[in-house]
Amino acid sequence: MELMWRTSHMSGGNAHYVEALYEQYLTDPNEIPDEWRNYFDKLPRPEGSTSHDIPLSPIREQFYQLARNRRNGHAADSDESGEGRKQVKVLQLINAYRFRGHQKADIDPLDLRNPAPVPDLDLSFHQLSQADMDAEFQTGSFFLGKDKAPLKEIYDALNQTYCRSIGCEFMHIVDTEEKRWLQQRFESVRSQPKFSDDVRKHTMERLTAAEGLENYLASKYPGTKRFGLEGGENFIPMMDEIIQRTGGYGTKEIVIGMAHRGRLNLLVNILGKSPSELIEEFDGKKILEKGSGDVKYHQASVPT
After folding, report:
1. Is-contact 56 23, C-beta < 8 A?
2. Which of 185, 180, 80 has the alpha carbon at shortest distance from 140?
3. Bridge-partner residues for 150, per DSSP?
């Protein structure tokens, strides 16, 4: 087993995966598995250096931006004033928010958490300051809607996207196309998409249905094990949207593998199981024709 661990990950097919892990290690070593962190810790460091490297993705973004400027006929700016060096720092700032912005997100409405500070989300960590706020920088792959913007606008957009009530954690994904798709979905709307009144009403109706069933079962069968959905009611409108959207793209069959939690609510509010049948099963008045007398929360009979 130890020999397999020492050698199996070195195959060429794993190159992108290992590179993505190393990028994450350079940003936050605690975000990767222990065995990978120990492996990277043992890599040789440059003489006299206390760290291995810096993340390469911001550097790649800078070269991409320079190439795009040349294709568009724009000459590269002079680096004598250090603007090019600060440009890289801005790209590193964007990368840091993508990796660790979720750790600063306001996802505790009861204010019970005491989250630790995240230093690499501060301007000073990237050698930037309030004096740079009005300076314009290339936005790289950040979906801001423009190629160049003042640092203040970039910084505000990063906080709005990654540090409000939605935490986005996706940079561990190896597939670049999938990762870019998620970045575009979150960043282009600052993690606050606009929905029509009809969509909002439908979502509210689904939430109300989910909560109503849970409240009824909790009051009528308080001592019965049922693995309720309380606290996860948004699962119902999410499944509703997934099924409706995939059906619109031509999906003919969906297989759902899920935990016990919320199973009954899914059967009734998404898959169309009759509430009266569910009540009869709870009361012992209805026995499934097929099956082995499984416990109630395992029963999954739905209309065909």
Report:
1. yes
2. 180
3. 136
Query: Residues 104, 191: contact at Cβ < 8 Å?
Result: no
Report which residue type is found at 215: N
Q: Which of 153, 49, 147, 170 is nearest to 93 (CA)?
A: 153
Q: 263, 254, 250, 256: which is closest to 295 by C-alpha?
A: 263
Burial 17-38 (b: 16+ CB within 10 A, else e): ebebbbbbbbbeeebbeeebbe
| Alpha helices (H) along 111-234 | 151-162, 176-187, 197-220
Question: How many residues would you count in the chain?
Answer: 304
The β-bridge partners of 149 are 137
- pTM tops 0.70: no
**98-142 pLDDT per residue, tens:** 999 999 999 888 888 888 899 999 999 999 999 999 999 999 999
37/11 Cα distance (integer angstroms): 19
The structure tokens 């499984």 sit at 294
CA dist 199 and 215 (Å) reads 24
